Structure formats: structure tokens, C-alpha cells
Amino acid sequence: MRFFRLFLPILLALSQLACQSSLTSSSGNPSTAPMRLQRILASGELRVGLSGNQPPLNMTDRNGEIIGLEVDLMKALAQSMGLNVRFVVKPFADLIPAIEHGEVDLVISGMTITPERNARVAFVGPYFVSGKSVLTKSAAIASADRAESLNKSEYRYSVLAGSTSEAFVEQVLPKAASVPAKDYDSAVQMVLDDEVQAMIADFPICQLSVLRHPEVDLSTLMTPFTIEPLGIALPADDPLFINLIGNYLNTLENTGLLVQFKAKWFSDGSWISELP
Fold it and tell me: Are 7 and 257 in contact, with CB atoms under 8 Å apart?
């Protein structure tokens, strides 16, 4: 990636300064040493949790490789830190517990920053702003201009288990039935099989699902119902680690690299042919 090589010296310089800062802090006061960050730097590996099935943010191609906007972002982040990256794939609902149990160092998986989640883990970002939309065969549902018009007892909506979409149906559409799915492929399949009237999900996923299934007359909203900031979730017990990731994310955005990643995954659909 030519544009990444262009910005690599900037990122490496930032990495050296951050590492020097953390080492100085820990040597000055061993009792408050940032143990998590020190362990990550010593291991040479950044463990990143994601679901692996939230295109175009993260997904698994036909060769079993994890690809997507978030994957490119984490590869750039790890390389600038002088680390290898290891992607740990887990169901979406298990990602925050994975941080709490020390199974991953951070999570990036289309995760909306909410007060409830922020009470358990720290967030940096947002790196992307999304919103709730629908995927449906119904013209009436696709033309809805208010979420409340979809609050009907005869409607069933597939949602990703443990997501803000599930909470959205429960809170905003209480008359309708929420049908949790383990991943987005399963949720989309429910729409294709007419098991539900629509899938409630983030706007990019709904858009992509329309493109992936041209043989079916699927529709989505022109404008999302909500505005949701997506952030990188981190353990709350190491402020220097949080600070470091926040600084890198700001650098990737300010140098224009994040914008180019977004253009790659949202403006050029050639990667769709790589999916199963």
C-alpha cells in the first residue's frame, strides 16, 4: 500500500515517543507501571478481537482470511507500533467479556460507543459513524421515514445478538419481535427465507447485503434512523495504553490514511467478489 508507506515514518516516530514515555513512567514509579502495555510491547503481538462477519468493517473471505476496513486499520496500527497483529474471532456478544478476561488486548468490530459498554471498558474514537437501518423485501418497511412506524406486533426483526440493534428493537419497537442471530449471515438469511420481515442492523451492512444478493429484491433505507459512533474498545485499567491507541488513531486520521481506507472499502466494491 503506497499511501501507507508514505505515512509510515510519521507513525514510527510517534511509536518511539510513546514507548519512551511509557518506559520513563514505569521506571519512575514501579508500583504504577502500565503492566498491560508493557506486556504487549514485550510480546511483540497485538491481539485484536472482532466478529469476522460484519462487512465491510470486518469479514472472512473465501480463503479464510480476515479482511475489511477495521482489519486494515489494525494492521496499520500494529505495524506503526512495531508489533505483529493477531485477529481473535469471537461472536459479537463475547467480545467485551474477552477484554475483561484478558483474552484480547482490544476490540474493533463495529461496536457502538454506549454508556452501558463504556461502564465496562474504555473507548477511543470514533473512527466511523454509522446508524440503524433495515434490510427487507417489503417496500412499506423500506420507505418508512420514522422508526416508530415499524412498531407493529405482526413484524419480526432479525438482529445481531448482544448488539445495539437488539436493544433498538426492544426499546423503540417493543410491539415487534426481536429474533437474535449469532452473526449477520444468519440474520440476513432469515430475511431471504421470509422468517422475518426485516433485519435491523448498521447502515453499511444493510447496503452491502443488497449488493451481495442482486437476485433478490432487497431494499434498505436511504437515511439511517439513528447516528451511532463506532469506537475501539480497550481495557480500562491502563490509561497509557488507552492514550497510545488514541494518539495513533488521531494520527491515522490526520494523515489521511483512515480516509483512504474508508474509500477502499466503501467506494470500491471489487472486494465483494472475494467473499464466499
Answer: yes
Placement of cell 445495539 in the chain:
164
Cα–Cα distance measured from residue 94 to residue 153, given in angstroms and rounded to the nearest whole number? 30
Cβ within 8 Å of residue 197, ≥6 positions away: 136, 138, 141, 154, 155, 156, 157
Please say whether the beta carbons of 88 and 71 come within 8 A. Answer: no
What are the pLDDT digits (tens) for 226-248?
Answer: 899 999 999 998 899 999 999 99
Q: Check: CB of residue 62 under 8 Å from CB of residue 77.
A: no
Separation between Cα atoms, residue 59 and residue 53, nearest integer Å: 4
Question: What H or E segment, with its residue span, contains residue 201?
Answer: strand 198-202
Q: How far apart are CA 99 and CA 101, in angstroms?
A: 5
Name the nearest CA neighbour of 69 among 219, 247, 252. 252
User: What tens digit of pLDDT does each residue of 151-161 get?
Assistant: 999 999 999 99
- Confidence (pTM): 0.76
β partners of residue 158: 179, 199
Q: Distance of CA 25 to CAs 20, 21, 37, 239, Å?
A: 9, 6, 12, 12
How are beta strands 219-220 and 132-136 bridged, if at all?
antiparallel
Nearest-angstrom CA–CA distance, 247 and 240: 10
